[in-house]
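[SOLVED] Need 3D model of a two-part complex

Original post:
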Amino acid sequence: MDAPLLQLRKVEKTFPNGTVALRGVDFDAYAGRVHGLLGANGAGKSTLINILSGAAPASRGTIVWRGREVAFKTPAEANAAGIATIHQHIPLAPTLSVLENIFLGRSGMWRHNPGERIRFEALCRDVGYAIDPDVLVADLPIGKRQMVAIMQALGGGADLIVMDEPTASLANEEREIVYQAVRRLAAQGKGIVFVSHFLDEVVALTDQVTVLRDGREAMRAKTKDVDERAIAEAIVGKAVATLDHLREDRAVVTGPELLIVRNLASGDKLRPVSLQVRRGEIVGLAGLLGAGRSELLLAVFGADRHATGEVMLDGEPLPRSTAGAVRADVALVPEDRKTQGLIPGFEIWRNITLPHLDDTAFGRLLTRRETEWARGAAAIEKLRIKAPSPETVVDELSGGNAQKVTVAKWLFGAVKLLLLDEPTAGIDVGAKADILALTRRLAESGVGVIIVSSEFEELLAVCDRILVMRDGAIVAERAASATSEHELVLLAGGRGARGERAAHPIH
Amino acid sequence: MTTKDWRRYFGLREAGVYYALLLLMAIIGLVTASSSGANYFSAANLTNILYQASLVGMMGVAMTVILITGNFDLSVASVAALSGAVLISLAGALGFWPAAAVAMLIAIGVGLLNGAIVQLLGINAFIVTLGTLTAIRGLVLIVTNSRSLMIEDPAVKAQMVAFEGGRAPIQAALFVIGGLLVAGAAYARFRQKKDKTATPWGAAIGGVALIGLGLLGGPSLSVAKPVVYTAVYTLVVWFVLGFTTIGRRVYAVGGNSEAARLSGVNVGLYKMAAFVLCSGTAGFAGILFASRLGAINPTALQGAELTVIAAAILGGTSLFGGAGSVVKTLVGALLLFALANGFNILDLGANYQGLIEGTVVVAAAAIYTVGGARRRRA
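Solution:
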């Protein structure tokens, strides 16, 4: 067997604040192979990636790259050596074009050079993906940005490509594009480290799999020797409870209508949409990225100033402002926790009490630390947030724990209608199950829920009814018990929708 | 209390501006004592520094609030000058109080205009207020017809003197405020277990310092009225920012306005209110400025907005929103005026003053940026 491209031996990482992220990890990456790297939130994946990419030094241990011991001090050094990293939060310059972003790291004096376009086309062929090079990145949906980031990493001619959850925010068909790109690159002899929470794609895509748990290696195996269940057990550390237990036989929800939406529309992102939600009902919104799901939630929540149409909650028209919506006991967990969900620099407790701050204060005006702190502590316990205390600043939390804070914000006030936008994106199996079980409990207590998710399996497990959206409109409605993941994929992707139209001929 | 807490409260980043002020005053005091024998630390001189810093300090407090909300207001000095010009030109006909009311209304109107353009049209506050800075200064020239205006009516003049001039004894006030701060800190320490709060050492030390000043100054210690106005105003804003739901939301709006909006905070209202507060404060400062002289010059306060912003930056206010403390801004203003005062006393001439002041501001910004972790709180 040939020598590995990259070898990590007993790598440890301790942060200045005393947190131990890695406790001696071995890791090998070979050319032409796809290496899956998995672990729960806080298991040390991101730290390991930062060490690989030169963004953070290891505290102890050795890194051998092509047979020579190295210690990258900056991402640029790692890059020059041939390691490209695609981070989870895509660092592209939104005001530059696709072409300019892809060749951002290149040297040379001129902003444009003719060779670029030829190299760009070659790159498109390598990856098997076509995109307009002159579009501004700001105008691209997140899925396409991900592909631009991948091409940017390849533009430098890397030999080892580290992908940190490249598919976390993508819809199914966009994921397939990433998979194809990964397979092509591996076939061309590149080494790939593929970090993911999706067990199915790891099993389907990778040659080797490494699972981290609490900063240690919990599993290292050839992918063909293990199955999803074994990997999941290694991640969680015990036999996992799958989502299936949530999917028991549920009676049809017959409570009174809670939310009635009539002809809610906004620009060309959201065509007139009508729907109802009953008390205690969980309605899922399935669809691909850009299908208008988030837009619909924001419009219901009053966050879209240009929306037209009627939104009634308990028979009363819902005010067209977020403040009005919160006063009317509507809650929204937005899609992007970083830009929409959390206040950076605020501690967990300050973030959690923000929506219903008045309830915690004397005379709605004087803040009461004791009450607020207690809510923070209760949230940590209730949602099993991994943080030393409510005093922890949210910037220091890992993705899944930060997501739990954005959910916990709404658990301490009256909520009649809960709008969840991708509440489980990019978080580990355990956290996912926690959040979904919580959603179920809230529904049982009479809360109406609309949940958007790109993981249809999740919708099937938790919802009573599923609406499929495509191109800003609702194209199908199914009882969760009467549909399957396969059907939802077809409906969202368009084929099933065409079938539906055929079933109800126009004439 | 752990080392981490000590560093948090007394590190350069958190308390640097206090050290800088003390260090600067010590240096100037030593140099004056050894060179001229003049007493820099005389009550007369120190209260004079307070008086000189009061208007900039007051505007700096409002500037801090608008910076916390993530906006910016360059027009404050122009608005203050306009307010002063309106007061002087109308006071003869209307009387002092009605003219002051009109001046305040106009200032608040400018704040509404600034806020409306920024919030409704979505233009960057820096650009909008750069425009109003120039336009309002033009308006001052129109109102004054490019000449200095003066108050002729002795009755009005007397009202102005009564409002701005004169001194107020402060020993009792120092004892009361200092006592309240110490008592508050002690109460917080007593409730520490329940509230999970860190002991507010800053308030305790500040309270002790105020009581100490009261003892040292004796019953005859007095300050000019604008100092009292600024002190009261700062106390009120400090309290609102630190202890009320309004203050919490101000920080939230600046920290991440989209997240605040999706949490049900009326972000537009808060940002608008900060503009109004800023212009309104500038209007009040303008009234004090014009009353001080009984006259207004069309170039009055030109460039003062930069001193105001410098005070806020010295106090550690973030230009990106979400962080800032009004008390530290006030100390920043004191630092700038103590420096100017020192130059006067040492008779070093104004030539070096700008150079030194600029260096101090950049050095402070460097400390805040380089020094330690980013903590965005008061």
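Edit: The first strand of chain A starts at residue 6 and ends at 14.
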